[in-house]
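User: Please run a holo structure prediction.
Assistant: Happy to. Please share the sequence and the ligand.
User: Here you go; the ligand is uridine-5'-diphosphate.
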Amino acid sequence: MDEKKVELLKDGKRISGRAFDELREVKIKLGVLDEADGSSYIEWGNNKVIVGVYGPKEVIPRHMENPSKAILKCNYSMVTFCSKEEHGKMGPNRRSVELSKVIREALEGIVETNLFPRTQIEIYMVVLEADAGTRIASFLGAVAALLDAGIPIKDIAVGIAAGKVGGKVVVDLDKDEDNFGEADFPVALTRTGDILLLQMDGKLTKEEVEEALGLIFEKSEVLLSKLREAVEEKYSKEVVKELKFSNKIIK
Ligand code: UDP
């Protein structure tokens, strides 16, 4: 148990200088890998994640085929030099298996898998640098790479976390806040307000959960804009129109 006390708020601001409802800077770029069918690179504060999407393609091993839909194979991993922290050897571990699973389940809520029976779609998310919030950054990068691959999705979705630090509900925790704060609450949601992923580390009261969800919904619109800009940058305004890309979260 870490007994170290860290002041996370100073003069009504977070130690990073951010306001309670302020996101870290987010940059998204599409089409960063030549061999992939779709790819993205995302910087979210000090997090750096690269995502490659391959498929729809033949299912290997064959017996895993589903005659009525595509299967999604998600792989989240961290490179050994992604942080100063001890994070073991490369290769799967309990955390990377969990994160791959929750991200896959979230993506299954939006990808039109029924259009591609007997195929697999592979989504690889590699964290190059980590500073808390990598599961939601990876989810956002996966949505961007799926858009780049032209794989139909039912609704655009984003990932975003809220939490509690120094007794205050805040959005988008960085590493110090994640380590020494009271709660971390990552969520992935669609533009129409469906929740695809919801996890919580720590404790929040019912009122705090409501406040956190309010912040999540409000700030998701910033991420939707970033995704739209990334699609516009590589493709065109027409493609954005076709995707019915609105920044407004419909609740
Ligand atoms: N972290 C790390 N190595 C690990 C696990 C975690 O460096 O093996 C750091 C990293 O900065 C990560 C943060 O701890 O972003 C918080 O990890 P958590 O499991 O809460 O997931 P995340 O917030 O990244 O989705």
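The chain has one domain: 24-236.
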